[in-house]
Amino acid sequence: HRFQAQGSLPFGRSEKLSEKFLKSLPFQLTQAQQRVIAEIRQDLNQAHPMLRLVQGDVGSGKTVIAAYAMLQAVENGYQAAMMAPTELLAEQHDRVFRRWLAPLGIKMAFLSGNVKSRARISALKSIERGEAQVILGTHALFQEAVTFSRLALVVVDEQHRFGVHQRALLRQKGIQADYYPHQLVMTATPIPRTLAMSFYADLDVSVIDE
After folding, report:
1. Which of 174, 185, 198, 207 could form a disulfide with 181 if both were Cys (CB 3.0 to 4.6 A apart)?
2. Which of 135, 158, 156 is nearest to 146 (CA)?
3. What is the maximal distance between C-alpha atoms in the chain?
4. What pTM does this model have?
5. Using alpha carbons only, what angle is made at residue 157 by residues 151 and 163, rounded to the nearest 5 degrees?
6. Using one digit for the tens of pLDDT, what is the confidence trace for 141-171?
7. For residues 145 and 55, what is the distance between their CA atoms, to the nearest angstrom?
């Protein structure tokens, strides 16, 4: 109840970018992916923050769904950030997202422990100024030096590999006086704690079962 009493930024129905993205993919979405996207779209139109878990096996298409959700934020003039637990996974996401989103004119930034000196300063500036619309990275995203312009959606991949406090730190980066960012967490590993959280209504759960 306390969580749902928080305000958020309802995303409008503008879907030019996201529809263009889906049409550019070399494959059709499964029925399960389409169902999960519809659930997320409905969440993002609410006046309280989304807190949804997407669970699906490796290769079931969670990344495509994350990209779609992040484009919803971009289309409404906000930033979206996605955090992965390892350098390797974050870099993989970065390569995939650049291949998908660069043709759409989306400006991106990447932050991890391996990003040093000039590249790091450049990324931090583009994030703070709001030039970077989609931001990918590791734990580096919630470091003190990182300031977002209008962060409205946080995506956490392999959420069980982060502590509750770590996930909260990234979410806090987007909290403003009148809104809290939406949050999407993803996992390929169903675990008892996640089941307990969903059972007690802490999370809405979507399953990609196809």
Report:
1. 174
2. 135
3. 46
4. 0.87
5. 90
6. 888 889 999 999 999 987 666 656 665 666 7
7. 32
